[in-house]
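INTERNAL AUDIT FORM
Audit reference: QA-55
Scope: verify that the stored structure record matches its stored sequence.
Auditor: D.O.
Record contents follow.
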Amino acid sequence: MKRLYQSVREEYPAPTPGNVTGTIPDWLDGSLYRNGPGLFEVGNTKYNHWFDGMAVLQRFHVTKQEVTYQRRFLQSETYKKNMEAKRIAVTEFATTAFPDPTKGSIARAVSFVTETAEPTDNTNVNINVLGEQMYTCSESNMLLRINPQTLETETRVVLTDHIPINMTAAHSHRDPGGALHSIGYQFGKGAPKYCLIRTPTVYNDQGGYSQSKLVASVTAEHSMHPSYFHSFGMTDNYYVFVEQPMLINVWKILAAMVKKNHMLQCIKWNPEHTGNLTRFHVIDKHSGKEVNAEIPYVADAFLVLHHINAYEDQGHLVVDVCGFHVGDILDKFEMELLTTDKAEEVIQNLPRPYPWRYVLPLEVDIDTEPDSNLVTLPDTDATAVLRKKKVFCKYQALSEQSMDLPVINYPMVNGRKYRFVYGTGLQAAPANMPAIFKLDINEKTTVKWCEDGCFPSEAIFVPRPSPSREDDGVLLSVVGTVGEDQEDFLLILDAGTLQEVARVVFPGIRFPRDQHGVFREGQ
């Protein structure tokens, strides 16, 4: 049996044609870009965690009946230092750098401090599109611009050079005008702050990250223990993010900077610290002010990595997330297990997220009768009650099927009322097989695609030009396989039915288990 989580060492800088089975829609013209960790050993040193591997970029260029494949390692400064040193020379999320073994103990200690003084720029999580430009990103303050045609690494952007933030989440939002909206952290004097940032699109070489502006900042509720977040929600008028009990210990971060320890040692799921509550922050995009800041929205402790969507509806903010009941997940991706035959068992035993809907009333009267439901929407079971100067929210389960990596028809329905969400996860039967799911929120039905030995990646929705309905388009997923006689492939599904439209095999090429990506038309 092949193993899913292994290093890929070959690069494919020139477009390599694939073998197409099925019929690719005539209108599908562009490139699917994927980003993720792909190299887990440097010399005799190994990374501890899947999140740590050296970033590898993939491009699937689709035009009519031809699909080509390219792959290159991101030429970050971290990658270059590691390759030159022939060891892991820069500390990552869960792996501490290795000192130079050729030097004596004192010289080794000096070189270790010198080499690891700069944080990693191994941006191996996602891709931001800003006008015609593309940037790889992670949860640091660095981005690397890449060439969309060659996947070559061009320049590095350090956000701190332009705006006072120290880290950002890996997921941004794009508004209809092309501007990016991001959320990050500001550490400095006083308590840490969560920052909402707007970056204008690039037009005639103007705009971009050098013109980023701080839209709003919110002081962390728990001083020196800000919340970790990976994504957030956005509507026409509001941002919404979740301050959850996955806490970053600032004291440990400061100590780690001296001891050169890794970030995972500084993050802990600790609901007791927050009174077993998770808090929603709603920010007015126009004024930068928090809505009902003195009467906070709270819920029983939960973890969210990926927001599905958010929208405004009759005086309410509807917030859909893939929520976990428990938060002990970040430490589950140990390479020591994922590179063995136990990988599938590890995946099947991971905590599972479910699609939940929270509804936040935008107008809250402090004199409202306690325990009365403030949600007046007729089509939801979610509730919000005023109690002890807090609005306690309970979710509506949108499905009993676990799923994560949610995607929607983003251009049509992001920030708006919607019907369909797609995700990946393990089906309950048979045998916890991985699958791609389509959830119809209105009808409360789920359909799926699955195949023995196949592990699909995040499915990217590509709408048909001038779509006639919300689910008029296709899904693209990079599928890894574990059977000895199976080939990895690019899967194309009809987004309406989840029936296979086509698959593309590149004989002998194995794909890395990537994280996130984007489709760009005409590229």
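Auditor finding: record pair retrieved intact. The longest helix spans residues 105-115.
Action required: none
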